[in-house]
Structures are given as structure tokens and as C-alpha cells.
Design brief:
The protein has eleven helices and 14 strands. The chain has 387 residues and is α+β, with helices and mostly antiparallel strands. It has a six-stranded mixed sheet, sandwiched between helices. It has a four-stranded mixed sheet with strand order 11-12-13-14, with helices on both faces.
């Protein structure tokens, strides 16, 4: 909708995606100018891009006076929205750069999203209340040019985002949805979206149908307090002081956290919370750590007593480098946590993200052997984080 205000559904989708994917990775003001010929172009209504995750959303909203629902679905969803998805993918390939603004007001080149291995293509549509289920239950449009395009009534997409809370989970669910479509092409359009979500919570294996899986939804809750870190991250963004030098301020840090699964977020929040709780109780507390083998990123949480806060940056650098070395990782995130000396009710943090090749370092190896600085932790394999 170049040059026009967003529709209600477009604004709603943008708000939903900001909640799940963070504002830093959500783009809904998608007009851009070609550097080649200065022509104005427009991407799909909403693009989400987070390193190797890319989601392209096109939304269609039915006018209240519409009455021929089949024609509307064919013309607006199957024809026009599909074309806009295809155009976005074409622009990714055609233009040398596509500079647009994310929901934080930062301009980024989303052209790089074309390098993602599996770009998710999604059409969401809003309709009148009496829209027939025979159309509403359509799950996919299969394009000979760009492959499977997911179709969602906006009520179903809203429902999904009540249960799936990270980009990883959304991506995994869309993978499962496509696999189930391949298994059950003849019957998938007779099933409500709630069945697919319940099946996914039971198992990602898609080669069967079990009507009882729909009952899994009653045991799931949106943003359970154990793994919801969105408020915590939002509150501490201003105090993120150290990141890799080639990105916008804190983006690498938010990416490292946004890619975690709910089971990993539970461990992340558990450690940062206990570090906050104990930092002022003892003069020295052994740092807490964790490692995500799925994202190959190590984390270290360093509680400091307020009287040692002047050493926070030194402690942050040393412990972060040490946990990176121990885990032989490319990426590591360190956090120091302490209370203000003049206001012990206020928490201060400093964050450091390292993204560097691991190399042997005899001094660090010897220090780890002589005076191991961390608590022992165990990384348990989790077969199904939703159960």
C-alpha cells in the first residue's frame, strides 16, 4: 500500500510480528527506491529477517460489503497476494540493495535476506465473520515458481502466535505444516489449524493423523513466565554497552537471545534471575553459564557486588573470553549484573557479544586448568520442548 495508511489488518500483523520477532527484525514500511533507475518499488506488507530466518508476509483484508467470497479469495488471496510474494522474491534477486526501515527506525539492507536457505512465504487474510470454512481451511497455495505458500486466516495466525513465542518456534511449525501437507494433501483442508498446532506440540513427525492431538492445546500457555524474556530485554537495551563493531549497537545480542528455543530461554532466564537476586548478597559469586548446541552460542552470567562494580567491564571481558574458549564456540554472550552503589534497588548490566573464530590460547587454557572459574553445568538433550 505504497503511500497509503496501513489497513487495520496490516497494523495488527505488524504488532503481532514485533511481539514474536522483536521490532529490530520486523519491516512493515516497505517502499524502496532502486539505486539503478530510481524507480519506486514495494516489498510485501511485512518482512521479518533475522540472520538465517526470513519470513515474507502479504495480508489481504476483505471489505465489509463483499459478498462473493469465492471470487474474493481467488482474486485477492490466490492471485494478487501470491503475485506480491513473487515480486518480493524477484526484487531480492534483482536489486543490488534494498534499504528499508525496521520498526525501530533503523535502515537496513534486506537484500541480504535472499541468502537465507528457506524463506517462508505467508499470506494472511482477514474476512467477514460468515466467511465459509471450506475456504478458511485452505492451508497452501502451491506455486510452480516459488513453491509452497502458507495461507492463514488472521484468526488462526493470531492463535498460533499465542502459543509459539520465538522465531525458531514459528519456523519449526511452518516446516511441520509443509511436511504434513506433503503427507496429507487430500485431507489437510478439512482440518482446523488447531489440529496442526496440537499435532506439532505432540510430535514434529508428520506421517500420521491422530484426532486426539488437538487436546494438547489446553496444556499450552502464551509466554509462560518461565521463558518470557521480552520485558527483561526491553528494559536492559539501553545498558547494552558492548557489541561486535560491525552491527547496529545491540542487534547481535538480541539475535543471540531471539534464536533460543523456549527450553533454552527457561535456562537463560533462570540464570539471569538468580544472578540479579544474589549479586549483592555475597562479595563474590561464581558466574553461571550455559551453552546452546543448537545455535552454537555460549552464555555467561556474572553477578558482581556493588563495591566491585568498577571492575564490571574487566570481569565481563575476561569471563566471556574464558567461556568462549572453554566451549570452542564462534559466538558468546556475556552479561555482568550488579546494583548501583548509590541506589541498591536499581540493577545495572553490561553486555558483551563476541563473534570470532576460536583459536588456541595457551594462557587461557592454563588459567582454566589451574583455577576453573565457573559452576559445573550440564546440557541436557530435550526431545520435545513443548511437552
Amino acid at each position: 500500500m505504497s503511500g497509503l495508511e496501513k489497513t487495520k489488518s496490516e497494523s495488527q500483523l505488524s504488532a503481532i510480528n514485533q511481539n514474536v520477532f522483536f521490532k529490530e527484525f520486523t519491516f512493515s514500511n516497505n517502499d524502496f527506491k532502486s539505486e539503478r533507475d530510481n524507480a519506486e518499488q514495494e516489498l510485501a506488507d511485512n518482512v521479518v529477517w533475522l540472520d538465517d530466518y526470513c519470513f515474507i508476509f502479504q495480508i489481504k483484508e476483505m471489505e465489509q460489503h463483499s459478498s462473493n467470497y469465492e471470487n474474493w479469495f481467488k482474486n485477492k488471496v490466490i492471485n494478487k497476494a501470491v503475485k506480491q510474494i513473487k515480486n518480493t522474491l524477484k526484487y531480492f534477486n534483482e536489486y543490488e540493495s534494498i534499504i528499508i526501515e525496521n520498526e525501530k527506525g533503523h535502515k537496513l539492507d534486506v537484500k541480504k535476506a535472499k541468502d537465507c536457505d528457506d524463506i517462508k512465504k505467508i499470506i494472511i487474510y482477514a474476512t467477514n465473520d460468515d466467511f465459509p470454512e471450506s475456504l478458511k481451511f485452505h492451508k497452501f497455495y502451491v506455486s510452480s515458481d516459488v513453491g509452497n505458500i502458507h495461507l492463514f486466516h488472521i484468526e488462526d495466525y493470531l492463535h498460533i502466535c499465542k502459543y509459539l513465542i520465538t522465531p525458531t518456534e514459528i519456523s519449526e511449525y511452518l516446516d511441520f505444516r509443509e511436511n504434513f501437507f506433503d503427507f496429507y494433501k487430500t485431507g489437510i483442508n478439512r482440518l482446523p489449524e488447531q489440529y496442526l498446532l496440537g499435532h506439532f506440540f505432540e510430535t514434529p513427525i508428520s506421517d500420521h493423523f491422530n484426532a486426539h492431538y488437538i487436546h494438547n492445546l489446553k496444556d499450552q500457555y502464551k509466554k509462560d513466565v518461565d521463558f518470557d524474556v521480552s520485558g527483561l530485554i526491553e528494559n536492559f537495551k539501553d545498558s547494552i554497552t558492548s557489541t561486535s563493531s560491525n552491527d547496529i549497537h545491540y542487534y547481535p545480542i538480541i539475535k543471540a537471545i531471539a534464536k533460543l528455543h523456549r527450553a533454552e530461554l527457561i535456562e537463560f532466564k533462570k540464570r539471569i534471575s538468580i544472578a540479579m537476586e544474589k549479586c549483592e548478597k555475597f562479595e563474590f559469586i561464581t558466574p553461571y553459564k550455559m551453552y546452546s548446541s543448537r545455535t552454537d552460542c555460549a552464555f555467561v552470567f556474572i553477578p558482581l557486588h556493588s563495591k566491585n562494580s568498577k571492575h564490571s567491564m574487566t570481569a565481563l571481558r575476561n569471563y566471556t573470553e574464558a567461556v568462549k574458549y572453554e566451549n570452542k564456540t564462534q559466538k558468546t554472550l556475556g552479561i555482568t549484573i550488579y546494583r548501583k552503589t548509590d541506589d541498591l534497588d536499581s540493577i545495572e548490566t553490561a553486555w558483551l557479544y563476541l563473534d570470532e573464530d576460536w583459536t588456541f590460547n595457551a594462557d587461557i587454557a592454563q588459567l582454566l586448568e589451574d583455577n576453573y572459574p565457573f559452576r559445573t553445568s550440564h546440557n541436557k538433550a530435550i526431545e520435545n520442548p513443548y511437552k
